[in-house]
Write a structure and sequence with these properties.
Blueprint lengths: L1 H23 L2 H46 L4 H10 L5 H38 L2 H25 L2 H14 L3 H4 L12 H8 L2 H17 L1 H14 L4 H9 L1 H8 L1 H7 L3 H10 L1 H14 L6 H29 L1
Helix pairs in contact: 2-15, 3-16, 4-5, 6-16, 10-11, 11-15, 12-15
Length: about 325
C-alpha cells in the first residue's frame, strides 16, 4: 500500500511538473508540444496496428492458404485453359498475329546473344570440362537467350494481345456487360483536336506504351528485387522453376489484372481480394509459371494461361452474381 501511494504521488508530481512547464511555455511552444505529442501517439498507434495486423495475417495464412487452394481449385485453370484454347478456334487469331514477330525477335536475340556470350562461356567450360563443355555452354547460352526473349516479349509485345484474348473469353461466356465497365483512357476523354494531336505524338505513344516499364525500372524496390532474383533465372532448369514459385502470386495477380480493371478495383481492393484467395492465386501462379518455363513454346502457354485466368474470372463472377441474386 505504501509503495502504491508513493508511486501515485510520484505520478501526480510528474503531471504537475509537466503542467507547470506547459503553462510557462509561450503559446506557440505549447502548440508545437501538442502537435508533436499527437504525431508521436499517432505513429505509435499505426505501428502497433501494423504489427498486430501483420502477425494476425501471417497466422491466418496457415489456414487461408490450404482452404482457398482447395475451395477455388485454381491449380486446374492453366490446364483447362489449354483445352479451352484448343477447342475454340475463334481464339487462335490473337496468337497467330504475334507468332511471326515473336519468332523474328527470338532469332535476333539468339544470334546476338550467341555472338556475345558463347565464346567466353565456351572457353571457360572447355577448360573445366573438356570437349563436353562446348555442348553444355551452348545449352546454357540458349537458356539465357530464352530468358531474355521472354522478358522482352512480355514487356513490349504481348500486353495488348493478351488483354484482347481475355476479353474474348469473357464474351464467349456471356459477360459482355462486364466489358462495359472498362476504364476509358485519358486520351479518349479530351476534345477531338487535342486527341488527334496527342495520337500523332511519338512521345505520347512511347510514354503510354512503356510508362509502366520505365516506372518498374526506376523503382528502387523493384530494381533491387530484379538484381537479386534475375541471376537465379539464368540457372538452367532449376532457376526458372524457383522463380515460378517465388513470383507465383504476382504472376497470378498480373493474369487477373484485366479483371480487376473491369471491376473497377483500386490497388487496395485488389490486395484485399487476392489475400482472401491467397491459396488459389498461389497455386494458379505456380502452375502457370511452371508451364511458361518450357523453352520456345512458353509464349503459347502465356496465351493458354490467360485463357485459364479468364475462365477462373468467369467462375468467380458468376458465383458472385448468384450470391447477390439470392439476397
Amino acid at each position: 500500500m505504501t509503495y502504491f501511494l508513493k508511486a501515485l504521488s510520484l505520478r501526480e508530481r510528474t503531471r504537475t511538473m509537466i503542467r507547470m512547464q506547459k503553462q510557462s511555455m509561450p503559446q506557440s511552444m505549447q502548440e508545437l508540444y501538442v502537435r508533436a505529442r499527437e504525431r508521436v501517439e499517432a505513429f505509435v498507434r499505426r505501428f502497433l496496428y501494423f504489427m498486430y495486423s501483420g502477425a494476425t495475417y501471417r497466422l491466418m495464412l496457415v489456414f487461408i492458404v490450404p482452404y482457398t487452394a482447395v475451395s477455388t481449385c485454381a491449380v486446374r485453370y492453366p490446364f483447362v485453359g489449354i483445352c479451352y484454347f484448343a477447342y475454340h478456334p475463334v481464339l487462335w487469331p490473337s496468337f497467330m498475329r504475334v507468332v511471326a514477330p515473336l519468332f523474328l525477335i527470338l532469332l535476333a536475340i539468339m544470334g546476338v546473344w550467341f555472338t556475345i556470350a558463347y565464346p567466353p562461356q565456351a572457353l571457360i567450360f572447355l577448360l573445366l570440362n573438356g570437349p563436353a563443355g562446348l555442348l553444355s555452354s551452348a545449352l546454357m547460352v540458349f537458356h539465357q537467350a530464352c530468358v531474355i526473349y521472354g522478358i522482352v516479349a512480355r514487356t513490349f509485345f504481348l500486353k495488348k494481345a493478351l488483354r484482347n484474348l481475355f476479353d474474348m473469353v469473357l464474351k464467349l461466356n456471356g459477360l459482355e456487360d462486364l466489358l462495359a465497365n472498362a476504364s476509358v483512357d485519358f486520351a479518349e476523354q479530351v476534345d477531338a483536336q487535342f486527341y488527334t494531336r496527342v495520337q500523332q505524338s511519338v512521345v505520347y505513344k512511347l510514354r503510354a506504351r512503356y510508362r509502366k516499364f520505365v516506372l518498374r525500372m526506376t523503382s528502387p524496390y523493384l530494381l533491387l528485387k530484379s538484381l537479386i532474383l534475375l541471376p537465379i533465372q539464368f540457372i538452367p532448369v532449376f532457376g526458372p522453376l524457383i522463380m515460378a514459385l517465388v513470383n507465383s502470386v504476382d504472376h497470378a495477380r498480373a493474369a487477373h489484372g484485366r479483371y480487376f480493371q473491369l471491376k473497377g478495383f483500386t490497388p487496395r481492393q485488389t490486395r484485399v481480394f487476392t489475400r482472401r484467395k491467397f491459396g488459389g492465386y498461389w497455386t494458379f501462379g505456380a502452375a502457370a509459371g511452371v508451364l511458361e518455363t518450357v523453352p520456345l513454346i512458353d509464349m503459347f502457354f502465356s496465351f493458354t494461361n490467360t485463357t485459364g485466368a479468364a475462365l477462373w474470372a468467369v467462375t468467380m463472377e458468376k458465383k458472385e452474381r448468384k450470391k447477390a441474386a439470392r439476397h
